[in-house]
Every structure is written in C-alpha cells, then in structure tokens.
Amino acid sequence: MNRADHYREYFTKEYLMGPNSFRLLDELICRNPYDACYDRTLDLGCGMALTSVFLANETPAKSVYAFDLWVDATDNLKRIRDLSLEDRIIPIHGDALEMPFAQDWFDTIVSVDSYHYFGCKTGVFADKILPFVRRGGNVMIAVPGLREEPQGEMRKLFETWAEGDDALCFHTVRWWEKLLKEECEDRCDIRVAEGECFYEAWEDWFNTEHEFAVRDREFLSRGLDRILNFVLIYVRKK
Ligand SMILES: C[S@@+](CC[C@H](N)C(=O)[O-])C[C@H]1O[C@@H](n2cnc3c(N)ncnc32)[C@H](O)[C@@H]1O
User: Fold this and answer.
1) Quick one: which atom of ligand 1 is closest to the CA of 43?
2) Using CB atoms within 10 A of its CB, is residue 85 exposed (0-12), middle (13-18) or buried (19+)?
3) Which of 79, 117, 159, 186 matches a 20 to 30 Å C-alpha distance to 6?
C-alpha cells in the first residue's frame, strides 16, 4: 500500500475531480530531484483541498495555503475543520493570475491537475507564479498531458474528448520544458518528466462512476490512453 491508499475514503465521485490526484501528488513529491522545504507551502488550484490535506499530513509543512478559483474557501474550511487541520491549512479563494501574496513568501508551490487551465501561456510562470517562491524554493506541478502530438483519426478522437479550448491545455514533456526554459532558465533549475501512475490514477477515477468518469473511460478505451500521460514539472529558483 502506498501513501495515497490511506485516503481511499475520498476516492469517490463526491471528492475526486479527475484522475486520482492523491496518486499524482504522492509521485510528484517522491520524484522531486531537488531538496524541498515545505514550511510554507502553497497548494495552487487545490480544488476541494484534499491535496492540501495530503500535504499537511504527509510532508513537514507548517502551513498549507489552499488556494482555488472554482471551489469556495468556506466549503474547504468545513472539510479542513472536520479533520482538525485548521491550524495548518488556510483556505483562500482567488485566481492564480492575481495572487494576493507577498513576493518570496513560499518555500514550495505545489499544483496538481490545475496548472494547465491557466499556465499554458508565455509569461504566466515567470510573472505570476515564480515571484511568490523564495530563492532556493521549489515549484512542483503535475498536469495531464500528451505522450506525443496526436495525428489523423487520433487527433479527431482527442479533440472530441477534450472539447474546444480544453484541447489546448494538453502538451508534451518537451513542450512544457521549452516553455519554462524560455521564460526562466537563467533564474531556475528546471526538470520535466513523464509521470508513472497513469493507469492507477485513471482507474480510481473510472471506479467512481462519476458521469464524466464514465465518458473518460469510454474515450480512453478507444485508444486515447496511448497518447495521454501526466507531466511532472520541477523548478528550483536559484
Ligand atoms: C481538476 S481540479 C483539481 C483540483 C485539485 N488540485 C485536485 O487535484 O483534486 C482543477 C482546479 O483548478 C482550479 N483552477 C483553474 N483555474 C484556476 C485559476 N486561474 N486560479 C486558481 N485555480 C484555478 C479550479 O478551481 C479547480 O478546482
């Protein structure tokens, strides 16, 4: 059993918002190539703050800032209080592109299954995210992505599944590496890798029988699983 399995009670359609983010986060933390201090950690795009709960329980974080746009901070506070974690997790509602924090405040910024919604444009990382992590601090990001650019029939299948602008959020390891290196290679160490928990994370999501999970299972079983992956991004600010 790995650490994510301790959170099985949340592997349901009421809590998961896509492929199992506990597994993704666990792998993201375990494979970080840089030394990490978690004292002040930002969970960027935390959704229902379950990833924040994992960070509070499974890392030495003193404070986890649970920051999200679509989910109300008061709803997250209820979940945090139920787990008696209100002294360690601070729920905040807001937009990643207009964060209200002091510069150089965080030791680590973590983002699971969220960054692709707002971070695919040049300048976002360097101007909107990096300023908030201190020198020597880490940014760790896990996003769904592409093993390779889909062609022909596979492209059509992918675009039918991802629907409109969402298709523009999926990119390869090489694409992410280029974007971040162009923006801040002079100020940061950067590593980008493919995640390994792909099938387990999707299987947990399918098993929720959420209506979107049922749809995802159908598309992945038609071959999309061969071109999708997870991309793990590690940045250390020099
Ligand atoms: C699929 S959910 C993942 C939530 C959580 N990290 C998890 O893995 O369970 C994507 C989250 O990204 C957040 N998000 C999207 N755009 C955002 C933005 N501009 N600022 C902050 N959060 C954003 C949404 O609010 C949503 O909760």
Assistant:
1) 6
2) middle
3) 117
**Ligand 1 pocket, 112 CB below 6 A?**
yes
Cα–Cα distance for residue pair 140/42, rounded to 1 Å = 10
Please tell me the pTM assigned to this model.
0.97
pLDDT tens readout for residues 169-223:
999 999 999 999 999 999 999 999 999 999 999 999 999 999 999 999 999 999 9
Tokens of 48: 């229902």
Map tokens 């792998």 to a residue: 27
Q: Report CA Rg, the chain.
A: 17
CATH of domain 3-10+20-146+171-196+228-237: 3.40.50.150
- 39, amino acid identity: D
**CA-closest residue to ligand 1 atom 14:** 45
> In ligand 1, which atom is closest to the CA atom of 24?
8
